Amino acid sequence: MERQKKYVAAVNHILKGLDFRKLENSCNSYEQTYAKEVLCKLHQAFVDTYGTDFLPHSEEPYVSMPAVLRGKKSGDVTLGLVVVDTTCAGELVDTVLFTPMGILDQRSGMLSNSEKRYLLHKYIPYDYWYTPEVAGDIHVNFEYIPSRVHSLLSSCSEIIPLDRIPAMSGVC
Fold first, then answer.
1. Ordered DSSP codes for the chain
2. How far is Cα 95 from Cα 104, in angstroms, rounded to an integer?
3. Separation between Cα atoms, residue 116 and residue 88, nearest integer Å
4. What is the pLDDT of residues 69-80, one digit of tens each?
5. Mean confidence (pLDDT) of the chain
6. DSSP code per residue over 99-136
């Protein structure tokens, strides 16, 4: 749980300076420069926290990780965080989307009516792809990745920990 708290603190630091409208526009643009920068920062923070971008079945079952989300109806893309259960083949537990309306947790009972409408119109239902690899994941379709999503995900390849820290332990 300590690593989860450390990662969330790192994400909160990244989000302080985030321009959410610019992020959504960038996610859906041709070049995606700003979105790639943000996703790489989120992924780098993950790798620095966990020492790896591969999650085996581990002692930390619930792990937040950066993700690219795409509305099935709208085709719109955004970034966010997904919480997955690494003990259940990467089962999705929660999703937080970064939107022009701010950070929206789809499971929150505190969403306003306009935030609910926005999520329903733009992103729900959605597909998602996270940047780390989860051992035995059966929930994310990495065989089919739309080009805009692939472009974002590929920007995070070859990121290594900035400090030498032990990777997560567990049985694969």
1. -HHHHHHHHHHHHHHHT--HHHHHHHHTSSS-HHHHHHHHHHHHHHHHHHSSSEE-EES--EEEEEEEEEETTT--EEEEEEEEETTTTTEEEEEEEEETTEEEETT-TT--HHHHHHHHHHTSSEEEEESSEETT--SS-SS---HHHHHHHHTTTT---SS--PPPPEE-
2. 8
3. 28
4. 999 999 999 999
5. 90
6. ETTEEEETT-TT--HHHHHHHHHHTSSEEEEESSEETT
Other CB atoms within a 10 A radius of the CB of residue 138 amount to 10
Which amino acid, residue 99?
T
For residue 74, give every residue at least 6 positions away whose Cβ sits within 8 Å of its Cβ, in sequence order, or none: 121, 122, 123
Sheet holding 62-71, edge to edge: 102-105, 91-99, 77-85, 62-71, 126-130
Summarize pLDDT for 77-113 with one digit per residue, the tens: 999 999 998 877 778 999 999 999 999 998 899 999 9
170 Rama sector, left if φ>0, alpha if ψ -120 to 50, beta otherwise = left
Model's pTM, two decimal places? 0.90
Provide the residue count of the chain: 172
pLDDT at 160: 81
The count of other CB atoms within 10 Å of the CB of residue 61 is: 15
